[in-house]
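User: Can you predict the 3D structure for this chain?
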Amino acid sequence: MNYIKELNAFYDWLELNELSPSAINLWYALMHINNKAGWVETFTVAESVLCVKTGLTDRTLRKVRNELKQKERIDFISRKGGRAPIYKIISFFSTENNSVVLIPTEINSVGSVTGSVTDSVIGDVTGSSTLNKLNETKRNETNKATATRVNYFDEYMICFSGQPSAIQIQEINSFIDQDGLSDEVICAAFKKAAEVGAKYPYARSILNSWAKKGVRTLADVEAEQNKFKQQKNRQRKGAIRTEQLPGWFEENENKPNNVTPLHPEETEARRKALEERLKKYKN
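Assistant: Here is the predicted structure, written as structure tokens:
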């Protein structure tokens, strides 16, 4: 299963099919979990885990799970005894495998599930053993590929503690398909936003800037960062300030001193005149 192709196909499917926001949220969560599991045919996950990942209540979770089943986007088997349900995501591309394995209605009997599996094993022990080995080999190969693959969906959840919306997925895919940015570059922008405590809009502004500058790979990101640091260092070196005196100060300094000191006799006469005035005010 190709994660990006499935997400794109799901978004296109939503344009023609009505699905509640909670059901969309659950589908993204199941895709994320199956990706972590290495894209297995079926997988189990506790309802409590899904409630944490989606923020849905138990009642709402069961309701939208049935909604996804009716829309043929997933299939599942409920089990008693506190055991986690068995899920299967119905791929948009692998239609040839969508009609096997799971019973089309919800099963609440563990015995029914066990019986159907037992009948299958008894029918052809040798064939089943060979098939299991092939499936195990394929699963191991998928897990190795998953471990080395960078997935922006997972990075989004790590950096922003949630799942991207359908519109955000469309924006991110546009950066990849139209602007040529690699998944690694997308993840790098997410990390930069998370480092400063920002959300997706900040990462989007980074991606817009990189797209305009022709950044396509992690090597381009590193080169752009080095260029930015060099420019910043040059600005710091050129920012050494030299204090400049105001023009009025220089004008006053350059003016000749035209003040003529008073003669001592004139100074004495002015002092006596001032004393006479003070006496009149006192009287």
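The mean pLDDT is 75. The longest helix spans residues 125-148.
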